[in-house]
Design a protein that fits this description.
Two copies of one chain form a homodimer.
Chain A: H1 3-12, H2 19-31, H3 37-46, H4 53-66, E1 69-72, E2 82-85, E3 92-97, E4 103-106, H5 109-121, E5 125-136, H6 138-146
Helix pairs in contact in A: 2-4
The first copy, chain A, binds a DNA duplex through α2 and α4.
DNA sequence: CAAGCGATTGAGAATCATTCGCACTGGCTG
DNA sequence: CAGCCAGTGCGAATGATTCTCAATCGCTTG
């Protein structure tokens, strides 16, 4: 999932490795966290990159087609548009605090295995999955006790 | 998760059990499937109910606050706004075909247990989860073979 | 049962993220 | 280094969702 890999993808699909595409993906790798479009744009601007919002959207679209990026739902109402780079196998698991929004990304073999099983049971061929666990983090739990 | 239960929720929160709120929730229960706002509006109109889109949004918001409804992500890019009623414990698991979009809702004890474990491991207190498995259904798999 | 009050609704305007259209630019090929 | 076409930037268009506010409803009280 390196920048180099992304450039290979581009070449394979007869797409140009432009400055903008490179810097978007490099920044996503550098952040190593989920992010939204505005914060990505801000970070790129701050680094002096010349890029427009439309191009960011177009690049994110590309990344999603390649399976290098996924949109994640970080609240039960799913109203926030947040993206995350896909680790190997494109599985993203999040543990989200429903109080403060703090999010832990994790990856667990057993989740993948379980999904594989379920897909098989229904005759489906697994491609990926996305698990969000909504819970209350220890800090917020404590605060609740105080009130 | 009956209509009655919804009315209790309303009362507890000092909210009025209006015709509109009742018919929205009744329709959601009747559909027993994931849905989008427009199709819900259409169905209500066809039944001769008088309701506006704004009120539907407001009611969906309420239902989500009560945990009776959840927004689900039925594609990796998460661009479609689709809602689903929450079964017990508010766990929604979907098996989505990435080719044709066909979706199976299921519920599995083992998924809940696994989430519980993961939350505990990080010191979190589980409230709910949402699992989407993206896979290819048997029909689409066959079609691919034909080409 | 009528009046009164605050909650709720409907209609359309406003907002916000995302996409589109189009003229301009830049990467690559020969 | 010339030229083509994909890619970009801008601003306008779109589409979903939320807001505003006057009109209405549901419920409570007299």
């Amino acid at each position: 999932m390196s920048l180099e890999m992304f450039e290979n993808f581009l070449e394979e699909h007869c797409l140009k490795a432009t400055q903008q595409r490179r810097s978007v993906y490099a920044e996503i790798l550098a952040m190593n966290e989920h992010f939204d479009v505005d914060s990505l744009l801000l970070r790129l601007k701050q680094k002096g990159q010349s890029i427009s919002k439309a191009t960011i959207y177009r690049t994110l679209q590309l990344l999603m087609e390649f399976g290098l990026l996924r949109r994640v739902q970080l609240a039960p109402d799913g109203m926030d548009a947040v993206y995350a780079a896909c680790p190997e196998g494109c599985a993203i698991d999040n543990l989200v605090c429903t109080e403060c929004g703090r999010t832990l990304q994790f990856s667990k073999e057993s989740v993948c295995d379980l999904c594989e099983d379920i897909a098989l049971q229904h005759g489906f061929t697994l491609s990926s999955h996305c698990l969000n666990i909504f819970a209350i983090c220890p800090e917020c739990k404590n605060k609740q006790g105080d009130e």
